[in-house]
Structure formats: structure tokens, C-alpha cells
Design the sequence.
């Protein structure tokens, strides 16, 4: 593909960032190959004229419009910037920030982190879950050939746009529209599964459709609802998959695993107090405690946490918990100079579970994310600390 020299300069700037930040190494065959893909499959072909940028640097997020503000559009495309291309499953405007993002092209840093974890060889057959704009599917097709790449997208409109983008780029992997949680059994077995949406419960279909020795990489979004984890799973010959966590990440949830609304609080809460400041476990989620909580209490999710006004009182720091497997709830209120006030529903007491998991994590020496392991079996999944 012939690239305008000015655009090629922009691509080179992004390549230089990925190299100096240690994401891709030109001195390794894999790194050199992905750096070439960056030039051969230009990202701007997969970004619409109007989108919403979320830079991973000091710049503020906001609208980018190629026709009205060309320079900011190009800078967003060829910098470490996540670009939201759809909100609210396609109903609201891209500028309606009250609507949740539902499709995007992820920041190049995290995109290449995941592609690198695939550890590809030229013969590998790849299944991608979540086509999105089509950029990563295009790079996979460029590297392996169209016939070895299958990509599936749940949203028909997003899939149609990706088809047009891929056509412009001169690439044509097998494209499917459907629920990625079911995989794509007609093309199985796969050597690699590349997941581009956040997953809380890993579908066993992906393990079934991957040959022994194959690899699955995905953004694992722990039940607590906070920051996610890059996870690489190796598929074994006994029908299980085991793996380790690498770096932090955050992705939009797979649509079948989203929780868009919560029911009203059920029943009266039981009141108590604790000396633990809830900001301590909240701050530790990205440093290993998030996985400890997922292991000890996979039903607990944190829906909100932060400063709030409380019934005429001075501002308080409030954490709200819900039960992913029931109607339990908890509200934890911390005011400076006071013990933490806890209100939680009966049955499984969510705050007690979170507080207990935090104490166990502290007692274990604050193990980091790289010390935890995941196993997926036909019966479900489990996280443990070896």
C-alpha cells in the first residue's frame, strides 16, 4: 500500500513511541514484524471522521473531527490515544458523554501489548473476538493471511463499518456477526484466540475451540468492576486452560456480560462500623488486591467509590457494593476523623467479604498481579495464589 510521505511521518512518530516505551522491540523478529504492520496497515483507515479521543497522556479527552479540526484528528490517530467510535450501542451521539462507550479502537500501546502476547507464528489460525473498527483484524490478516483469520462482532452496524474499512485496506479475513462468547466453531480448532472486549466470566467455548498448546489472550475484568488485567491462557490437553496475569488494562465489557442497571436496594440494612478506611482496599485494587478479591469473593462488585454529599452532612467518601449473584448490597461511608460507617443487607455481607479478603491479602505480603494464576475448566474458573 502506497502511503503519503506526510502520513508515513506520523506513523513513524507512533512507531518511535512504541519502541522507546518498550512495547515493541525492532531487534526481535516479532517486534520488527508488528512495526512493519503499523506502516502497512495504517490506523487512520480505521478511524471515522468524527470520534471521541481519550489520550493516554496530558491532553484532555474530546471530540476529534477530521473535516473541522484536521490536525487534532491526525494527532489522535497516530499517538497513544484510545478512540471511541460508538456510544450507547449506536443510539446517542458520539459527543453524548452521559452514554457509555460501546465500541472503540484501543490505544496502540495496549493493542500491541496484546498482539505481542499472542506469540504468533506464520501457520497459526486465529479467532478474534470483537472486530470493532477492524484494525487488529487487519493486522492479523496482513501477518498471517486472510484465510487464517476469523473475526466476530456482535454489533451489525459496527461489523458493517469494519467490512468497509478492511476493504479499503485491501484485506478480507473471515468476518462473522454474532455473540463472541460462543466462539466460531466452524473454523475450529484455532491456535490463538485474540479477545478485544472485557471479560468477567471466560466462556468455555473458547477453550473447546483452541487446540492443546494454543493460546488465548484477553482483557480480564475482575468482578469488583475496577481496573482490568491482561491475561494469557495456555490450553492444555485435558480440556483446561491455565495462565498468568501480565499488566493492567481496561476494556469495554462483552455485551452479554454487561450490567447496565441495578435493582433498587432490597430490605433494611444492618448497621455497623469498622476502623478500616475503605480508600485503602480501593487504592490497592490495581496492585494485586483486585485479584485477591476476585479469588475470595467473586460475587462482590464495586459500583461506585468516591466523594459524595450525604443528607446535609459534610462530604463523605462512599463505596457502594452489589452482589453479582443476588440482590445483596452494602454502602460504606467514611468521614474524616470518624470510624467508617457500614450499612449492608442481610445474607452474604459484602463489606465483610471485602474487608476479610483485604486482610488476607495484607497478611500474604501484598502479592502483586504477576503472582496470581487463573484456571478455566468445564465447571468454571478459579484464581489462586501458588
Sequence:
Amino acid at each position: 500500500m502506497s502511503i503519503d510521505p506526510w502520513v508515513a511521518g506520523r506513523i513513524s512518530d507512533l512507531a518511535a513511541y512504541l519502541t522507546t516505551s518498550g512495547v515493541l522491540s525492532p531487534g526481535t523478529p516479532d517486534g520488527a514484524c508488528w512495526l512493519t504492520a503499523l506502516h502497512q496497515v495504517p490506523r487512520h483507515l480505521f478511524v471515522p471522521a468524527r470520534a471521541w479521543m481519550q489520550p493516554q497522556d496530558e491532553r484532555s479527552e474530546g471530540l476529534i473531527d477530521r473535516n473541522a479540526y484536521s490536525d487534532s484528528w491526525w494527532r489522535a490517530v497516530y499517538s497513544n490515544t484510545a478512540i471511541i467510535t460508538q456510544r450507547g450501542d449506536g443510539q446517542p451521539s458520539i459527543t453524548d458523554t452521559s452514554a457509555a462507550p460501546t465500541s472503540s479502537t484501543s490505544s496502540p500501546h495496549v493493542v500491541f501489548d496484546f498482539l505481542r502476547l499472542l506469540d504468533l507464528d506464520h501457520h497459526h489460525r486465529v479467532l478474534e473476538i470483537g472486530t470493532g473498527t477492524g484494525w487488529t483484524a487487519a493486522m492479523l490478516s496482513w501477518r498471517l493471511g486472510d484465510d487464517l483469520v476469523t473475526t466476530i462482532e456482535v454489533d451489525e452496524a459496527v461489523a458493517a463499518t469494519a467490512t468497509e474499512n478492511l476493504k479499503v485496506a485491501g484485506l478480507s479475513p473471515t468476518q462473522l456477526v454474532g455473540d463472541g462468547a460462543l466462539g466460531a466453531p466452524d473454523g475450529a480448532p484455532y491456535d490463538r484466540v485474540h479477545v478485544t472486549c472485557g471479560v468477567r466470566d471466560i466462556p468455555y467455548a473458547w477453550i473447546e475451540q483452541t487446540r492443546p498448546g494454543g493460546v488465548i489472550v484477553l482483557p480480564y475484568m475482575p468482578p469488583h468492576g475496577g481496573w482490568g488485567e491482561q491475561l494469557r491462557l495456555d490450553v492444555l490437553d485435558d480440556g483446561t486452560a491455565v495462565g498468568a496475569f501480565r499488566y493492567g488494562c481496561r476494556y469495554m465489557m462483552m455485551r452479554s456480560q454487561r450490567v447496565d442497571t441495578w435493582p433498587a436496594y432490597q430490605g433494611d440494612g444492618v448497621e455497623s462500623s469498622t476502623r478500616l478506611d475503605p480508600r485503602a482496599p480501593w487504592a490497592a485494587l490495581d496492585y494485586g488486591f483486585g485479584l485477591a478479591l476476585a479469588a475470595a469473593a467473586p460475587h462482590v462488585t464495586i459500583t461506585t467509590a468516591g466523594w459524595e454529599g450525604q443528607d446535609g452532612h459534610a462530604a463523605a467518601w462512599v463505596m457502594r457494593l452489589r452482589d453479582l449473584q443476588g440482590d445483596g448490597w452494602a454502602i460504606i461511608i467514611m468521614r474524616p476523623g470518624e470510624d467508617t460507617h457500614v450499612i449492608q443487607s442481610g445474607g452474604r455481607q459484602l463489606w465483610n467479604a471485602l474487608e476479610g479478603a483485604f486482610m488476607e491479602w495484607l497478611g500474604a505480603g501484598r502479592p502483586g498481579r504477576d503472582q496470581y494464576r487463573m484456571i478455566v475448566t468445564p465447571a468454571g474458573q478459579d484464581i489462586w495464589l501458588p
